[in-house]
Amino acid sequence: MAITWILVANASLAKLYENLGPNKGLKLVKELIHPESRQKNGELVSDRSGAMAMTGSGGGSMQPQTMPKQHEAKVFAQEIAQALYQGRTSNAFKRAIVVAPPAFMGLLNAVIDGPTAQLITDRFEKDYTKTPENELGERLGSTIFL
């Protein structure tokens, strides 16, 4: 019997479910919460941008390459990727399904290692993090063979 993991995530919450086969339903394996992703950019930075001395006529200020909120989403995506990696290396699942909003799906795809990515058979660009387990099974339908 092949265990399927279903990851339902957004930038601040991830739920990992397992499905043991047809008509077995979903069982919550792990829940990861990243409250920093819910904060506003201004709450994530402790100070204003650093000032730089400029030669010539203008002054300047260093701007961050990425917004703090986006940085936190990347940090969380890496944490989720690590959980998937650990599950794969411990043979906790043989197949995975990932459900995440489009922008966060892109972050996840960028950080999931190759061997783990090969076990992902389906990707859904939706935010189902607030969907109850029984309804989640209905929404994913035959993809997970509940």
Q: Can you describe this structure?
A:
With 146 residues, the chain is of the alpha/beta class. The protein has one domain: Nucleotidyltransferase, domain 5 (2-Layer Sandwich). The chain is built from 5 helices and 7 strands. Mean pLDDT is 82; it is low at 50-54.
SSE diagram, text form:
Layout lengths: L3 E6 L3 E7 L7 E7 L7 H4 L6 E2 L7 E2 L6 H22 L5 E5 L2 H10 L2 H5 L1 E5 L8 H8 L6
Parallel strand pairs: 1-6, 6-7
Antiparallel strand pairs: 1-2, 2-3, 4-5
Helix pairs in contact: 2-3
Brief write-up:
The protein has 146 residues and is of the alpha/beta class. The protein is built from 5 helices and 7 strands.
Category from helices, strands and their pairing = alpha/beta
Return the CATH topology: Nucleotidyltransferase, domain 5
**How much is the radius of gyration in Å?**
19 Å
Given this structure, which CATH class is correct?
A: Alpha Beta
Distance between the termini: 13 Å
Average of pLDDT: 82
Looking at this protein, list some descriptive labels.
single chain, 146 residues, alpha/beta, Nucleotidyltransferase, domain 5, five-stranded mixed β-sheet, two-stranded antiparallel sheet, 5 helices, 7 strands, 34% helix, globular
